[in-house]
Design goal:
Layout lengths: L2 E2 L2 H21 L6 E7 L3 H17 L2 E7 L5 H12 L6 E4 L9 H7 L11 H8 L8 H12 L8 E5 L6 H9 L8 E5 L6 H5 L4 E4 L17 E4 L3 E4 L7 E4 L4 H4 L5 E2 L6 H21 L1
Helix pairs in contact: 1-10, 6-7, 6-10
Length: 293
């Protein structure tokens, strides 16, 4: 039976630490950190996620701004909005919630964000700094996973970590961070993806598996070895007529099976998701501190 890596409790701990910092800032007569979110359209999952970010800002004392735009907005108009946010001296950081409507080029939009306000850590400048081990904004989900490993004092040095998924948001940065010098870090990393052959043979050799594939219940008990650390990044809405909401949230990992073999495992929900929001807030504090300097 595995130990649950409780992302919700850990994120609450981080939020409490940030709350204390914000109080000290306000007591000194200074303005608090300010985070903005741009939401295009009415995607249900995005609305829920952005709403959670706004509530978290309010809870810890940040200023927050939610900018809701119609899903038929032109790319040019969205870029104009981003430019205004880039030039707002009272705004420390902002995010553009993904996914965007199909007629908008996500890469163009993300590249338009000022790297100094890119608290999602998606801009090539910040990604490059992360790859070089420089101080920067680390993408919030990988940052959250590393912080979870750190706070649970899990030693991954010299261990074999397998990352499933090669996105620029999770998979690739995760593989870099796990292998970097530091604690946690120094793991030997295998990055796998949809074209990887004999994936189960690879995951069975792993001491740590980070799954960011987006396929419900993909990772089953026969794909992991006893005592492995399992990090589930997947989050998929699966229709369920018996549930009041009409759906349930399911991760990449077949939790009920795998928890019997893993030493540590993240649940879905309540694992990586809350940590992502906590580290977005942490990045915003970093942006604020840079602005003050």
């Amino acid at each position: 039976m595995s130990i649950i890596l409780d992302g919700k409790a850990t994120s609450n701990q981080i939020k409490e630490e940030l709350t204390i910092q914000v109080k000290q800032i306000k007591d000194a007569g200074k303005r608090p950190p300010h985070l903005a979110a741009v939401l295009v359209g009415n995607d249900g999952a995005s609305l829920t996620y952005v709403g959670s970010k706004v509530r978290s800002c309010e809870r810890i004392g940040y200023d927050s701004t939610l900018i809701k735009l119609d899903d038929d907005i032109s790319q040019e108009a969205l870029l104009d909005t981003i430019e205004k946010l880039n030039n707002d001296p009272l705004l420390d950081g902002f995010i553009v919630q993904l996914p965007l409507p199909k007629h908008i080029d996500e890469e163009v939009v993300l590249h338009a964000i000022n790297p100094n306000k890119d608290v999602d850590g998606f801009h090539p400048t910040n990604f490059g700094k992360m790859a070089l081990g420089m101080q920067t904004f680390i993408p919030a989900t990988p940052f959250g996973i590393m912080e979870l490993l750190k706070r649970y004092k899990l030693d991954i040095s010299g261990k074999h970590a397998v990352v499933i998924g090669r996105s620029h948001i999770v998979g690739r940065p995760m593989s870099i961070l796990l292998s970097e010098k530091g604690n946690p870090g120094n793991a030997t990393v295998t990055l796998t993806h949809s074209r990887t052959q004999n994936l189960a043979d690879i995951t069975r050799e792993a001491d740590i598996v980070v799954s960011a594939l987006g396929v419900p219940n993909f990772l089953t008990a026969d794909m992991v070895k006893d005592g492995a650390i399992i990090i589930d990044v997947g989050i998929t809405r699966v229709p369920d007529a018996d549930h009041p909401k009409g759906y349930v949230i399911v991760g990449d990992v077949h939790f009920d099976q795998v928890k019997e073999k893993a030493s540590y495992i993240t649940p879905v929900p309540g694992g990586v998701g809350p940590m992502t929001i906590a580290m977005l807030l942490q990045n915003t504090m970093l942006a604020y501190q840079r602005n003050q300097d």
